[in-house]
Amino acid sequence: MAIIYTVPQSHACIIERFGKFSRVQKGGINFKIPFIESIKNVDVWGDIANKEQIYIELSEQRIDTPIRQCHTKDNVGVDVNASIYFRILSPENAVYEVDNLVESLPDTALNTLRSQIGKTTLDELLSERQKLNDQIFMLLKDSIKNWGVSLLRVEIQELNTSDETADAMRQEMTAEREKRAMILEADGKKQFEITTSEGIAAGIKIRAEAEAEALKIKAEAESEYLMKLTERIGTENAG
What we know:
Number of helices: 5
Largest sheet: 5 strands, antiparallel
Radius of gyration: 43 Å
Helix content: 40-55%
């Protein structure tokens, strides 16, 4: 490489002098002393976080972990992987504080993921994925604090169970639905019986009240008739 060169924006490179760290150069025009200084090669990172194998990318990066099988607290096997979002803040630490950043980061994330899944039941795992993401994020963040990396977030991507487990879950869900249906049906019948009984009782009460009112009206009518008859008889006698 030439003595004077340009580092792309949002990138950095590491200058070594006689094989030892000298300085970090960032975007813009830079130079190095020929024969004495060289740019650190980061080709071991593959196509992650580097450009042309010498320029370290400082923008947000993503690494996907390979799929691994883990076992939950209730001993259910699940195949899982995660995406790790990060940004390199200190190229020096990212290169020298860890053997290979882009291998160590997903490996550490998988170990943390496996450990946390082992403390979680399958139901909790399926219903509280975001909570697990947050737990892994905090633990991983603490593990890599000296690697010159800012961890942005961790997201579980795939979460698959075996065919046997999936069948068992479907059977359990079917049984639960049938159980709920039976409970609802029983509650409906009970409510119908209560409503019917209350309706019959109300009908009897209304009928009794109607009959009582009819008897009352009849009695009042007879009383009024007798009163008028008495008055008429009394008047005729007086004549």
